[in-house]
Amino acid sequence: MRAAVLREYGEPLAVEEVPDPEPDPHGVVVSVEACGICRSDWHAWKGHGEWADDRVDPGQILGHEPAGTVVEVGDDVDGVAVGDRVAVPFNLGEGSCPQCRRGHGNVCDDGYALGFEHDAQGAFAERVHVPHADFNATVVPDAVPMEAVAALGCRYATAFHALAHRADVAGGDWVAVHGCGGLGLAGVQIASALGAGVVAVDVREEPLALAEQVGAAETVRSDRVDSVPETIAALTDGGAHVSMDALGRAETCRNSVDCLRTRGSHVQVGLTTDAEKGEVALPVDEITRWDVSVLGSRGMPPSRYDELLRMIASDQLRPEELVTERVDLGAVSDRLAAMTDYETSGIELVTEF
Ligand SMILES: [Zn+2]
Ligand SMILES: [Zn+2]
User: Fold this and answer.
1) What is the mean pLDDT of residues 72-90?
2) Which of 259, 299, 300, 339 has the fewest other C-beta atoms within 10 Å?
3) What is the pLDDT of residue 52?
4) Are 198 and 185 in contact (CB under 8 A)?
5) Which ligand ends up closest to the CA of 97?
6) Which ligand is nearest to the CA of 246?
7) What is d(CA 65, CA 122) in angstroms, rounded to the nearest whole number?
8) CA-CA distance, 85 to 30, in Å (whole number)?
9) CB 133, CB 80: distance < 8 Å
10) pLDDT tens, residue by residue, 113-162
């Protein structure tokens, strides 16, 4: 099969012929119909993560946002069959550790990061292997269009888990979203569908226009105001109830914490770059004084995909509206390069392999 392989950090991915994956007894093989191109791929491609011992080794097939149809099933798999359309998280659990047993497969003690490690080769390829498929793969209802599944990726699911489960967004809340790439725009659409008023923040006009289309009540050009937190406080009569940093730079993280009202919740979903190396200074005395919550959120456990899929099936969420570009496998490197200068907007998919 054809696959796009990381050979050298920062150099174009090598599109190569590689052996088809075989299913483990507990795994399935999925024929990939689409795979999102995500900033996490960009981090891996750039060789980031050394500071957290999280660097992706050369030889890796990248791609962790697959949508596709099961074509081969391991002997021990019961709940997934050939022909099923499946949604698959990037943070795969092994299904039996204490976290998995409690439904938190996204933080499995012994899990795999699809597309980021040798034992879990990714989906910038014609086929991808999904281990522990009974635990990890969710069969998608017919009412959910394939384009929507493809657009779920890690970003949409990550934003859903961060806002609906971790930060517990409620109707009538004000939610600020810092950084309107694919993850941020997903957050805008989801928070709006959950009944919140959304303030979208970015330095670029185009993603803010998209944010308005998918539900933002207010937008802030962060390069055109003196203070992003003060601007948000004025727009929301005192600050956001929930604020999400979808970018992962020191400035966006700090703005997100600073724009909260008393008892607000900051949720961090963007990973930092080599400028921050995982460390951002935060106002801990203010966090303490005002009962502020600072939350981390990673992906979404497979145990909660059905909630998201029901909201898509009933047309309350439309992830496919965030798709801005469809490319073939050979063009992935160009799209990753475009992320370096923040030239992409919305969710871009590989749809030709
Ligand atoms: Zn586990
Ligand atoms: Zn992703």
Assistant:
1) 96
2) 339
3) 65
4) no
5) 1
6) 2
7) 9
8) 9
9) yes
10) 999 999 999 999 999 999 999 999 999 998 898 778 888 888 999 999 99
